[in-house]
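Q: I have 447 residues here and want to know how they pack in 3D. Can you give me a structure?
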Amino acid sequence: MSRILVVDDEEKMRHLLSIMLKTKEYEVDEAGDGREALGMVDECSYDMIITDIKMPRMDGVELLNRIKERKIPCPVVFITAFATIESAVEAMRQGAVDYITKPFEEDRILLTVERTLNLSRLMAENRELRQQLQTVAGDDEIIYVSREMSLVMDLASRVAASETAVLITGESGTGKELLAKYIHKTSPRNEKRFVPVNCAAISSNLVESELFGHEKGSFTNADKKAVGKFEYASGGTIFLDEIGDLPMEAQAKLLRTLQEKKIQRVGGNEEIPVDIRLICATNQDLEQLVESHCFRQDLFFRINVFPIQPPPLRERMDDVVPLARHFLKRMAGSRIHLSKDAEITLMNYNWPGNVRELSNAIERSAILEQDSKTITRDSLCFLKSVTCQNLESGFRLPADGISLENFEKQMVKQALETTGNNQSAAAKLLGLSRAKFRVLMKQTLKE
């Protein structure tokens, strides 16, 4: 739902405009002059502003200039009397997008508002596009030649055309978000938003606000109304990464949203329809979490309609060299090359950190070899496997003993170095759960 700010020092004019707009189900706020409006714009996001030109304290032209100075991406429409159209035209040269005249003609106003809101949506899409263009070209490409990955991509292509919920599982670093983006881009919703949410990165007491939004004053520091990710993604795809880390209370609200296709902002009573395609991802065993009562069974059934599991890199070794060449070209163009012995080294490594670790390794090597222009086996000497397979049977305690604390510290450090600081992969190397590994890491690496 679009939100509009009406600014006019004449209360009757403000109310008249507000009534017209509210009948078309727009959300409308009012301000008595430019100074009051500027304060409201600083606190809340608006899709457009309709403002009178002549007002006390701060007029419409100064309000427009202040908005431009703050780089607030909000189109402004001026209200003017017939006698001052010249000033409105001048203001448009300064950045206003249109003007409406007094006395008001409802059809003319609603047409102007609709046109301006379309512009506002285009501005938002352009901002998103600029952000995407700031990333390195090719980041969203999925590179593969292996049969294992071809099967995964075939599944993704088949499910993309439907509205079915998708659950992407697998180890960290296997490209679950890239696969989710691929499904979105090849779906009928590809012209709408793809909204990723990392459930593990949100504070537990802010999860519901992040997903569903909140009303002003609904909790401490909620100084303005906020739109949640579901409302923002409406019409497109929402990607819930690390879904296994979602708190139980938020799981219940998520289930209700998926069932009823409506959300309620925190602190609000209004039910807001949302139209989203859901894709979830996790590197955890959700069935095990269900058995341990850490994840709702009914929610699991709801999101696990079409599971896809991209294989770890060690199970698609045919893709290692093509991926390495792709990453190198993206980072260095044609200035740096992979030698044959470097390719052999990459193929002989187990890649516990998967594609993400490979990308990091190529980036590091490219930096080191800027002068030589060639990545060799020696350039990749930092790839050291943690070899503990025979530890249980082959290790013998020295006669003078060891420092268990130092031993654990070295194992933790090596596991993190091997996996490019990927805690989930490091935990797997040491045969630990991620939670136990974090405890060990805090104990051994504390200052």
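Q: Anything worth noting?
A: The chain is about 45% helix and 15% strand. Residues 106-134 form the longest helix (29 residues).
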